Amino acid sequence: MIALVDCDSFYASCERIFRPDLKDKPVIVLSNNDGCVIARSREAKALGIPMGVPYFKVREVVTKNNVAVFSSNYALYQDISSRVLETIRNFCPEVEPYSIDESFLILDSLRLKDEAAFAKRLRQFIKRSVGIPVSVGIGQTKTLAKIATKIAKQADEGIYNIAAQEDPDCVLASMAVEDIWGIGQHQSKKLRAVRIRTARDLKYAEDGWIKKHLSVVGLRTVYELRGFRCFGFKEIPDNRKSICVSRSLGTYLTNYNELSQAVAFYASLASEKLRAQRSLANVVTTYISTSF
Length: 292
Description:
Elements: E1 2-7, H1 10-17, E2 27-30, E3 37-40, H2 42-46, H3 55-64, E4 68-71, H4 74-91, E5 95-99, E6 102-106, H5 115-129, E7 134-139, H6 142-152, E8 159-161, H7 168-173, H8 185-193, H9 199-203, H10 207-225, H11 256-276
Parallel strand pairs: 2-4, 7-8
Antiparallel strand pairs: 1-6, 1-7, 2-3, 5-6
């Protein structure tokens, strides 16, 4: 079995460690230039504050609801991420850091009788020793663990084992195809055009069609949904030779300042990934395209 440990609202949770008075209060974190919202606590999400929105657009909501606002502190977040990772390694010898707030765990060597009980102990220890709340998803593959984690974040106990469900296909049927790990916006459009709308639909899709239209990588995702491990596991991931952050904006932008802030936000995300692997950039390319 594979588990994915995902820190909840990581940047906001880091700020709360030093501000215990903000427990259960709405918190947001802004990008480098305080231009855009890059992290939101669950309470801030409930207020309808979108991810990546320019701060001035939600200033009225922030003021009205006494939302705590912080400038980003990446050095702090990286330090706390390292502490979370160290804590996880005390519980499981095979750990792959995936991002600053996510890590995969191979549970096979632990020979657990109850994966959910293990996940509960791990969550409690991370919260007690580091102060960060986490969600844990469990599945036979990385892709299934990713899906389980999405569900775990909505569960009160913060844990979900998709393999323990009586009918895992029913779970997959509730997951939109664009929400599957590794399926991008362009690929999801292709899939929806042929009535593949959910993770269950993709699981039972025809191999030849998937390989032709989504390449071998897409076919591996299909096999992962079927319970076959296709994506490797590395305790020390290789550094990426290129980093790309490409997103669609949530709303139409016609103002240069708003567009500039959005570009700065995505640039900060790319910079964060660059710093995480301690690399240097030789070339930086920025591109913008319209939807017309």
